[in-house]
Amino acid sequence: MYKKIILGAFMMLTVLSAKPNIMILATGGTIAGQASSANATTGYKAGALGVDVLLKAVPELKNIANISTEQIANIDSSNMNDEIWLKLAKKVNQLMNNGNIDGIVITHGTDTMEETAYFLNLVTKGSKPVVLVGAMRPATATSADGPKNLYNAVALAGSKNALNRGVMVAMNDKIYAARDVTKTHTLNVETFKAPNAGEIGYIVDGKAVFNHTVTKEHTRNTPFDVSSLMSLPKVDIIYTYSNDGSQVASEAFVKAGAKGLVVAGSGAGSIHENSKNYLIKLLKEKKVFVVKSSRVGSGLVPISKEELNQGFISANDLNPQKARVLLMLALTKTKDPRQIAKYFEYY
Ligand code: SIN
Q1: Is 94 strand, coil or helix?
Q2: I need a surface site. Which of 4, 45, 118, 288 has the fewest CB within 10 A?
Q3: Could you report the per-residue pLDDT of 4-17, keeping only the tens digit for each?
Q4: Which residues are tagged catalytic?
Protein backbone atom coordinates (compact mmCIF):
# COMPACT_ATOMS: atom_id res chain seq x y z
CA MET A 1 0.00 0.00 0.00
CA TYR A 2 2.69 2.52 1.12
CA LYS A 3 4.90 1.35 -1.72
CA LYS A 4 2.10 2.13 -4.22
CA ILE A 5 1.55 5.63 -2.80
CA ILE A 6 5.28 6.42 -2.90
CA LEU A 7 5.55 5.10 -6.46
CA GLY A 8 2.50 7.13 -7.52
CA ALA A 9 3.89 10.30 -5.94
CA PHE A 10 7.27 9.68 -7.60
CA MET A 11 5.64 9.22 -11.01
CA MET A 12 3.56 12.38 -10.52
CA LEU A 13 6.70 14.37 -9.61
CA THR A 14 8.52 12.98 -12.65
CA VAL A 15 5.66 14.05 -14.95
CA LEU A 16 5.44 17.48 -13.32
CA SER A 17 9.17 18.13 -13.52
CA ALA A 18 9.69 16.57 -16.97
CA LYS A 19 11.42 18.99 -19.27
CA PRO A 20 9.98 19.43 -22.77
CA ASN A 21 11.86 17.97 -25.72
CA ILE A 22 12.69 20.78 -28.12
CA MET A 23 14.19 20.42 -31.58
CA ILE A 24 16.20 23.40 -32.85
CA LEU A 25 16.41 23.65 -36.64
CA ALA A 26 19.19 26.08 -37.56
CA THR A 27 19.22 28.03 -40.82
CA GLY A 28 21.81 30.78 -40.19
CA GLY A 29 21.26 34.54 -39.90
CA THR A 30 22.83 37.15 -37.65
CA ILE A 31 22.10 34.99 -34.62
CA ALA A 32 24.83 32.77 -36.13
CA GLY A 33 26.82 35.76 -37.38
CA GLN A 34 30.51 36.42 -36.79
CA ALA A 35 32.16 39.85 -36.89
CA SER A 36 35.83 40.84 -36.79
CA SER A 37 35.42 42.74 -33.52
CA ALA A 38 33.02 42.81 -30.56
CA ASN A 39 32.06 46.39 -31.45
CA ALA A 40 30.97 45.54 -34.99
CA THR A 41 27.23 45.22 -35.53
CA THR A 42 27.36 45.70 -39.31
CA GLY A 43 29.61 44.30 -42.01
CA TYR A 44 29.75 40.83 -40.43
CA LYS A 45 29.09 37.43 -41.97
CA ALA A 46 25.60 36.09 -41.20
CA GLY A 47 25.24 32.31 -41.03
CA ALA A 48 28.88 31.74 -40.07
CA LEU A 49 28.53 29.69 -36.85
CA GLY A 50 27.01 26.26 -36.34
CA VAL A 51 24.07 25.59 -34.03
CA ASP A 52 26.40 23.93 -31.45
CA VAL A 53 28.14 27.32 -30.96
CA LEU A 54 24.78 29.04 -30.41
CA LEU A 55 23.86 26.48 -27.74
CA LYS A 56 27.18 26.90 -25.92
CA ALA A 57 26.36 30.58 -25.37
CA VAL A 58 23.21 29.65 -23.42
CA PRO A 59 24.12 26.87 -20.92
CA GLU A 60 20.88 27.64 -19.01
CA LEU A 61 18.90 26.04 -21.82
CA LYS A 62 19.57 22.62 -20.32
CA ASN A 63 17.60 23.66 -17.22
CA ILE A 64 14.41 24.26 -19.19
CA ALA A 65 14.46 21.70 -22.04
CA ASN A 66 16.02 18.60 -23.52
CA ILE A 67 17.47 19.95 -26.74
CA SER A 68 18.26 18.24 -30.00
CA THR A 69 19.48 20.11 -33.08
CA GLU A 70 19.74 19.91 -36.83
CA GLN A 71 21.54 22.30 -39.15
CA ILE A 72 19.12 22.73 -42.09
CA ALA A 73 21.15 25.49 -43.78
CA ASN A 74 23.59 28.22 -42.78
CA ILE A 75 22.76 31.28 -44.86
CA ASP A 76 22.13 34.99 -44.72
CA SER A 77 18.33 34.93 -44.89
CA SER A 78 18.31 37.56 -47.64
CA ASN A 79 19.29 34.54 -49.78
CA MET A 80 16.34 32.40 -48.64
CA ASN A 81 14.86 30.21 -51.37
CA ASP A 82 12.00 27.79 -52.10
CA GLU A 83 14.24 24.75 -51.72
CA ILE A 84 15.03 25.56 -48.09
CA TRP A 85 11.40 26.50 -47.41
CA LEU A 86 10.20 23.12 -48.69
CA LYS A 87 12.91 21.30 -46.75
CA LEU A 88 11.97 23.16 -43.56
CA ALA A 89 8.23 22.58 -44.04
CA LYS A 90 8.72 18.84 -44.58
CA LYS A 91 11.01 18.61 -41.54
CA VAL A 92 8.58 20.51 -39.30
CA ASN A 93 5.73 18.25 -40.44
CA GLN A 94 7.81 15.16 -39.59
CA LEU A 95 8.48 16.61 -36.13
CA MET A 96 4.77 17.38 -35.66
CA ASN A 97 4.20 13.61 -35.96
CA ASN A 98 7.15 12.65 -33.74
CA GLY A 99 5.84 11.72 -30.29
CA ASN A 100 9.24 12.50 -28.71
CA ILE A 101 9.22 16.17 -29.69
CA ASP A 102 7.14 18.79 -27.86
CA GLY A 103 8.12 21.97 -29.67
CA ILE A 104 10.24 23.30 -32.54
CA VAL A 105 12.54 26.33 -32.65
CA ILE A 106 13.92 27.63 -35.94
CA THR A 107 16.93 29.95 -35.82
CA HIS A 108 16.73 32.28 -38.81
CA GLY A 109 18.02 35.58 -40.17
CA THR A 110 15.72 38.49 -39.44
CA ASP A 111 15.64 39.86 -43.01
CA THR A 112 13.13 37.33 -44.35
CA MET A 113 12.01 35.75 -41.08
CA GLU A 114 8.46 37.07 -41.54
CA GLU A 115 8.17 35.35 -44.95
CA THR A 116 9.43 31.96 -43.73
CA ALA A 117 7.24 32.20 -40.62
CA TYR A 118 4.12 32.94 -42.69
CA PHE A 119 4.95 30.19 -45.20
CA LEU A 120 5.29 27.63 -42.37
CA ASN A 121 2.15 29.00 -40.71
CA LEU A 122 0.23 28.05 -43.86
CA VAL A 123 1.78 24.66 -44.70
CA THR A 124 2.69 22.91 -41.45
CA LYS A 125 0.08 20.69 -39.87
CA GLY A 126 -0.03 20.28 -36.12
CA SER A 127 -0.64 21.94 -32.79
CA LYS A 128 2.93 21.93 -31.41
CA PRO A 129 4.57 25.33 -30.96
CA VAL A 130 6.83 26.37 -33.85
CA VAL A 131 8.92 29.42 -32.96
CA LEU A 132 11.23 31.39 -35.25
CA VAL A 133 14.01 33.33 -33.58
CA GLY A 134 16.97 35.43 -34.66
CA ALA A 135 19.11 38.33 -33.57
CA MET A 136 19.97 41.83 -34.72
CA ARG A 137 23.53 41.73 -33.37
CA PRO A 138 25.98 39.03 -34.42
CA ALA A 139 26.89 36.33 -31.90
CA THR A 140 30.35 37.92 -31.44
CA ALA A 141 29.00 41.38 -30.46
CA THR A 142 29.09 42.93 -27.02
CA SER A 143 25.58 42.55 -25.67
CA ALA A 144 24.51 40.19 -28.46
CA ASP A 145 20.75 39.70 -28.38
CA GLY A 146 20.82 36.15 -29.78
CA PRO A 147 21.38 34.18 -26.53
CA LYS A 148 18.44 35.77 -24.68
CA ASN A 149 16.22 35.49 -27.75
CA LEU A 150 17.14 31.80 -28.08
CA TYR A 151 16.42 31.15 -24.40
CA ASN A 152 13.01 32.82 -24.79
CA ALA A 153 12.23 30.89 -27.98
CA VAL A 154 12.99 27.53 -26.32
CA ALA A 155 10.91 28.50 -23.28
CA LEU A 156 8.04 29.47 -25.58
CA ALA A 157 8.30 26.29 -27.68
CA GLY A 158 8.19 24.23 -24.48
CA SER A 159 5.18 26.02 -23.05
CA LYS A 160 1.83 24.17 -23.01
CA ASN A 161 0.26 27.59 -23.27
CA ALA A 162 1.75 27.98 -26.75
CA LEU A 163 -0.08 25.01 -28.29
CA ASN A 164 -2.43 25.66 -31.23
CA ARG A 165 -1.34 29.26 -31.81
CA GLY A 166 0.19 28.75 -35.24
CA VAL A 167 3.78 29.65 -36.07
CA MET A 168 5.23 32.39 -33.87
CA VAL A 169 8.23 34.72 -33.83
CA ALA A 170 10.00 35.40 -30.52
CA MET A 171 12.17 38.51 -30.63
CA ASN A 172 13.24 40.99 -27.96
CA ASP A 173 11.03 39.41 -25.25
CA LYS A 174 7.89 39.63 -27.40
CA ILE A 175 5.76 37.01 -29.13
CA TYR A 176 4.26 37.69 -32.56
CA ALA A 177 1.90 35.70 -34.79
CA ALA A 178 3.56 34.74 -38.09
CA ARG A 179 0.84 36.36 -40.20
CA ASP A 180 1.13 39.76 -38.57
CA VAL A 181 4.80 40.22 -37.81
CA THR A 182 7.15 42.34 -39.91
CA LYS A 183 10.64 43.79 -39.62
CA THR A 184 10.48 47.58 -39.25
CA HIS A 185 14.01 48.80 -38.48
CA THR A 186 17.25 48.03 -40.31
CA LEU A 187 19.45 47.73 -37.23
CA ASN A 188 17.64 48.18 -33.92
CA VAL A 189 16.97 45.17 -31.68
CA GLU A 190 13.36 46.38 -31.28
CA THR A 191 12.70 45.85 -34.98
CA PHE A 192 9.79 43.42 -35.09
CA LYS A 193 6.26 44.76 -34.90
CA ALA A 194 2.79 43.67 -35.90
CA PRO A 195 1.38 46.97 -37.23
CA ASN A 196 -2.19 45.73 -37.77
CA ALA A 197 -2.57 43.46 -34.77
CA GLY A 198 0.12 44.06 -32.15
CA GLU A 199 2.16 41.33 -30.44
CA ILE A 200 0.23 38.38 -29.00
CA GLY A 201 2.27 38.10 -25.82
CA TYR A 202 5.63 38.33 -24.13
CA ILE A 203 8.18 36.19 -22.35
CA VAL A 204 9.52 37.00 -18.92
CA ASP A 205 12.02 34.87 -16.99
CA GLY A 206 11.23 31.88 -19.21
CA LYS A 207 7.46 32.18 -18.85
CA ALA A 208 5.31 32.84 -21.91
CA VAL A 209 2.37 35.13 -21.28
CA PHE A 210 -0.33 35.55 -23.94
CA ASN A 211 -2.60 38.58 -24.25
CA HIS A 212 -4.26 37.88 -27.60
CA THR A 213 -5.41 34.86 -29.58
CA VAL A 214 -4.76 34.51 -33.29
CA THR A 215 -8.00 34.76 -35.26
CA LYS A 216 -6.86 34.00 -38.82
CA GLU A 217 -6.80 30.32 -39.82
CA HIS A 218 -3.40 28.58 -39.83
CA THR A 219 -1.57 25.24 -39.85
CA ARG A 220 -4.16 22.41 -39.83
CA ASN A 221 -6.97 24.75 -40.90
CA THR A 222 -5.50 25.70 -44.26
CA PRO A 223 -5.79 23.65 -47.45
CA PHE A 224 -2.12 24.10 -48.38
CA ASP A 225 -0.01 20.95 -48.50
CA VAL A 226 3.55 20.98 -49.83
CA SER A 227 4.45 17.41 -48.80
CA SER A 228 4.72 16.18 -52.39
CA LEU A 229 5.96 19.42 -53.98
CA MET A 230 9.52 19.88 -55.26
CA SER A 231 8.99 23.49 -56.35
CA LEU A 232 6.54 26.38 -55.90
CA PRO A 233 4.78 28.57 -58.49
CA LYS A 234 6.82 31.64 -59.44
CA VAL A 235 5.36 34.88 -58.08
CA ASP A 236 7.16 38.23 -58.23
CA ILE A 237 6.66 41.67 -56.72
CA ILE A 238 6.52 45.00 -58.54
CA TYR A 239 6.64 48.40 -56.85
CA THR A 240 4.72 51.50 -57.88
CA TYR A 241 6.20 55.01 -57.61
CA SER A 242 6.10 58.44 -59.26
CA ASN A 243 6.71 58.17 -63.02
CA ASP A 244 6.37 54.36 -62.60
CA GLY A 245 8.31 52.31 -65.13
CA SER A 246 7.49 48.92 -63.63
CA GLN A 247 5.64 47.79 -66.75
CA VAL A 248 9.07 46.69 -67.99
CA ALA A 249 9.53 44.61 -64.84
CA SER A 250 6.03 43.04 -65.19
CA GLU A 251 6.75 42.13 -68.79
CA ALA A 252 10.10 40.57 -67.89
CA PHE A 253 8.69 38.66 -64.92
CA VAL A 254 5.90 37.15 -67.01
CA LYS A 255 8.37 36.29 -69.77
CA ALA A 256 10.54 34.56 -67.15
CA GLY A 257 7.59 32.40 -66.05
CA ALA A 258 5.82 34.36 -63.30
CA LYS A 259 2.34 32.98 -62.70
CA GLY A 260 1.49 35.79 -60.31
CA LEU A 261 2.44 39.38 -59.58
CA VAL A 262 2.00 41.24 -56.32
CA VAL A 263 1.93 45.02 -56.62
CA ALA A 264 3.33 47.08 -53.77
CA GLY A 265 0.90 49.92 -54.45
CA SER A 266 0.96 53.45 -53.06
CA GLY A 267 -1.45 54.47 -50.27
CA ALA A 268 -4.42 52.12 -50.15
CA GLY A 269 -2.96 50.02 -52.96
CA SER A 270 -3.14 52.50 -55.84
CA ILE A 271 -1.15 51.66 -58.96
CA HIS A 272 0.27 54.30 -61.34
CA GLU A 273 -1.69 54.26 -64.61
CA ASN A 274 1.53 53.53 -66.57
CA SER A 275 1.73 50.20 -64.81
CA LYS A 276 -1.96 49.53 -64.20
CA ASN A 277 -2.95 49.67 -67.86
CA TYR A 278 -0.35 47.05 -68.67
CA LEU A 279 -1.51 44.85 -65.77
CA ILE A 280 -5.11 45.10 -67.03
CA LYS A 281 -3.88 43.91 -70.44
CA LEU A 282 -2.06 40.95 -68.81
CA LEU A 283 -5.20 40.07 -66.83
CA LYS A 284 -7.36 40.24 -69.97
CA GLU A 285 -4.99 37.87 -71.75
CA LYS A 286 -5.07 35.58 -68.64
CA LYS A 287 -1.26 35.71 -68.53
CA VAL A 288 -0.96 36.21 -64.78
CA PHE A 289 -2.81 36.70 -61.46
CA VAL A 290 -2.40 40.14 -59.89
CA VAL A 291 -2.70 40.91 -56.16
CA LYS A 292 -2.88 44.52 -55.00
CA SER A 293 -1.10 45.26 -51.72
CA SER A 294 0.43 48.42 -50.32
CA ARG A 295 3.94 49.73 -49.74
CA VAL A 296 2.64 51.76 -46.74
CA GLY A 297 3.30 49.04 -44.16
CA SER A 298 -0.08 48.73 -42.48
CA GLY A 299 -3.78 48.78 -43.30
CA LEU A 300 -6.20 47.04 -45.60
CA VAL A 301 -6.25 47.38 -49.39
CA PRO A 302 -9.80 47.93 -50.65
CA ILE A 303 -10.80 46.81 -54.12
CA SER A 304 -13.42 48.39 -56.40
CA LYS A 305 -16.09 46.48 -58.36
CA GLU A 306 -14.37 47.52 -61.58
CA GLU A 307 -11.03 46.12 -60.38
CA LEU A 308 -12.69 42.89 -59.26
CA ASN A 309 -14.17 42.51 -62.74
CA GLN A 310 -10.76 43.21 -64.26
CA GLY A 311 -9.38 40.34 -62.16
CA PHE A 312 -7.43 42.20 -59.47
CA ILE A 313 -7.32 40.57 -56.02
CA SER A 314 -6.89 42.44 -52.73
CA ALA A 315 -4.04 41.40 -50.42
CA ASN A 316 -6.29 42.27 -47.48
CA ASP A 317 -3.81 43.67 -44.92
CA LEU A 318 -0.84 41.49 -45.91
CA ASN A 319 2.30 43.36 -46.89
CA PRO A 320 3.68 42.64 -50.38
CA GLN A 321 6.21 39.99 -49.29
CA LYS A 322 3.55 38.09 -47.36
CA ALA A 323 0.94 38.49 -50.10
CA ARG A 324 3.50 36.86 -52.39
CA VAL A 325 3.73 33.81 -50.07
CA LEU A 326 -0.05 33.37 -50.01
CA LEU A 327 -0.42 33.85 -53.77
CA MET A 328 2.27 31.18 -54.39
CA LEU A 329 0.41 28.72 -52.18
CA ALA A 330 -2.99 29.69 -53.58
CA LEU A 331 -1.70 28.86 -57.07
CA THR A 332 -0.86 25.32 -55.91
CA LYS A 333 -4.60 24.85 -55.29
CA THR A 334 -6.63 26.84 -57.83
CA LYS A 335 -6.61 29.07 -60.90
CA ASP A 336 -9.90 30.76 -59.95
CA PRO A 337 -9.35 34.42 -58.94
CA ARG A 338 -12.53 34.41 -56.78
CA GLN A 339 -11.22 31.43 -54.81
CA ILE A 340 -7.82 33.11 -54.45
CA ALA A 341 -9.60 36.25 -53.19
CA LYS A 342 -11.31 34.06 -50.54
CA TYR A 343 -7.91 32.73 -49.40
CA PHE A 344 -6.82 36.33 -48.87
CA GLU A 345 -9.84 36.84 -46.58
CA TYR A 346 -9.26 33.68 -44.51
CA TYR A 347 -5.51 33.39 -44.11
C1 SIN B 1 19.89 37.67 -42.17
O2 SIN B 1 18.69 37.92 -42.32
O3 SIN B 1 20.36 36.53 -42.33
C4 SIN B 1 20.84 38.78 -41.82
C5 SIN B 1 20.26 39.81 -40.95
C6 SIN B 1 19.78 39.31 -39.63
O7 SIN B 1 19.70 38.13 -39.31
O8 SIN B 1 19.47 40.21 -38.79
Answers
A1: helix
A2: 4
A3: 555 555 455 455 56
A4: 30
